[in-house]
Amino acid sequence: MIKGLYTAGAGMMLQMARQDVVANNLANVNTGGYKKQIAVAQAFPNMLISRLGEIKKNIEGEYQPVPVKLIGGLGTGAAIEKIYTDFTMGNIRKTDNATDLALNSDGYFAVLTPQGERYTRNGQFKINNEGILTTNQGYPVLDTGDQPISLEGEFSIDEMGNISVNGESIARLKMVRFENPQYLERQGDNLVAAQEEAGTILERPGILQGYTEDSNINAVKEMVELINVVRAYESMQKVVQAEDETTQVAIDQVGSVS
What we know:
Elements: H1 2-27, E1 37-43, E2 47-51, E3 55-57, E4 63-65, E5 69-74, E6 78-85, E7 92-94, E8 101-103, E9 108-113, E10 116-120, E11 126-127, E12 133-134, E13 155-157, E14 162-165, E15 168-172, E16 175-177, E17 185-186, E18 192-193, E19 200-201, E20 207-209, E21 211-213, H2 219-254
Antiparallel strand pairs: 1-6, 2-5, 3-4, 7-21, 8-20, 9-10, 9-16, 11-12, 13-14, 14-15, 16-19, 17-18
């Protein structure tokens, strides 16, 4: 009975973790370049259940233990194995805003934060009061020389990331590609950090000026997933209640000496 409580409790904690992931996806459905997360569960190791402790009489009338008989495995619950990221590209939407950029490849824009260089797929940039190209959070966008980009006057950006002001090339956007993007660490503001792998400069990024990449989240599917999570959580609650009632009966009746 106690094992049942622990198993149901583990299931409730699993559904709470899944709910957090789905809720975060829904909160970022309109965040440019956001990649959805998927929570993958794993089962705890099964317990091997055997039938033992029985005795029977042999033909001589002597009592002997019955050989152990295997019954099978008993599940002991589940937990989150890992939270994976779906890196499929979102829809490319036209905005006609000169500072909006979309990457038609698997690369990332490099930006400078107080914690160092970080990377983002969100190309919804702007020009601040100092004439520097920044993210919506104010982080400068870097060029291939790891320097902020200053823009004055009319500018254009070609598909290779070359920036031209009044027809003169002044810099090239730094865009980085990672062989194993699952190792990237999310750090808020739609930024990621490279912890285990150094990125390589993306030579052919396929930049589209005046476009932006939407998130790859399907809001309807996420809502359906959220409903499934809530129902699974409620099922685990009912199991806990049933186990509690059974335990109470065992205490009040089975253990009674009257």
